[in-house]
Design goal:
Layout: E1 2-5, E2 16-19, E3 29-37, H1 41-48, H2 55-58, E4 71-79, E5 91-95, E6 103-107, E7 111-113, H3 120-124, H4 127-140, E8 148-152, H5 157-169, E9 172-177, H6 182-187, E10 192-195, E11 208-213, H7 220-224, E12 227-236, H8 241-252, E13 257-260, H9 266-277
Parallel strand pairs: 8-9, 8-11, 9-10, 11-12, 12-13
Antiparallel strand pairs: 1-2, 3-4, 3-6, 4-5, 5-7
Helix pairs in contact: 4-5
């Protein structure tokens, strides 16, 4: 089969399309015929091996796993011994190692059945970005109905899902984005939108119970300034590595700053699928590319 691989840490432009063996289907695994794969900042970091401290787990001098791609959607073509729910022919989405390929394999609980009305491309965009948004708002930020939330980077991968998830929780949403994306963010449900190219949202009079920062474009003191007393600032792991470190330090000191690295879980994918089927969550596709 054809797959995108790397044998050394490199810029994404240096990844290569090669012929490799079809992945095995072990006990409890399902193998997909890949129909679409999502591309995230996570893939960029894995290709480059950044931050360098992560190479302790990823491989010090070269990546242990040469395959790239995490988000995936496709059709089950084989099920290993012990698989309980999924069957060949099922259309699913989820996560795996090596999604940028014609076939991919992973444990059954990495996948859920794709909503019938959702395309493979739309489904493949969901896992990393939408789970990050869900965990940041619900678990780390503890957002509740009636609260006010500001989402910096509201038109990005995580941000577009965050706006919709915050609305599904019952929050009042303010989205920060560039001029060309104002109408997009409004269409996702934000009551208020701020054009960061024209206004400094950290100097606006509004105050928020929660700020989810996906951009890393403003300092921590500036973002804390727009919180209500007892409010929380949450940094998503793709925002800014230096500020992630500072946020982690402040969190340890008991300040109202939180940071996290989202891990995809089957239960979270089920929550997202329910929101999609209820018409409360959709994917915003910017561009699509052929595998090569």
């Amino acid at each position: 089969m054809r797959a995108i691989v790397q044998d050394r840490y490199c810029a994404p432009e240096q990844l290569r399309l090669r012929e490799v063996p079809v992945p095995a289907t072990g006990d409890g695994d399902v193998r997909l015929r890949v129909r679409a794969a999502g591309v995230n900042p996570l893939d960029w970091h894995l290709a480059r091996g950044t931050p360098r401290v992560a190479r302790v787990a990823m491989g010090l001098s070269a990546p242990k796993d040469t395959r790239r791609g995490v988000d995936v959607a496709g059709v089950v073509e084989a099920a290993g011994k012990g698989v309980k729910e999924l069957r060949p022919g099922d259309e699913v989405f989820g996560w795996c190692e090596g999604a940028f390929a014609e076939h991919a394999s992973a444990p059954e609980d990495h996948f859920v059945v794709k909503p019938a009305a959702m395309s493979f491309e739309e489904a493949a965009a969901v896992p990393v970005a939408a789970v990050t948004a869900l965990r940041g708002l619900r678990d780390v930020g503890r957002l509740r109905s009636g609260q006010r939330v500001l989402i910096n980077g509201a038109s990005g991968g995580v941000g577009t899902y965050a706006v919709q998830i915050a609305k599904s929780i019952g929050a009042e949403v303010t989205g920060v984005c560039s001029t060309r994306n104002l109408e997009l963010v409004r269409s996702l449900g934000a009551e208020h939108v701020i054009d960061y190219t024209r206004e400094d949202f950290t100097r606006e009079p509004g105050r928020y119970d929660l700020v989810l920062d996906n951009a890393g474009s403003r300092s921590i003191p500036a973002l804390r300034r727009i919180l209500v007393t007892g409010g929380t600032l949450v940094y998503n792991s793709g925002a800014s590595m230096p500020r992630m470190g500072m946020a982690a330090l402040l969190s340890r000191m008991g300040r109202n700053v939180r940071t996290f690295f989202a891990q995809i879980r089957h239960d979270d994918l089920m929550v997202l699928r329910d929101l999609i089927e209820a018409g409360k969550l959709r994917s915003v596709i910017d561009r699509t590319y052929p595998l090569d």
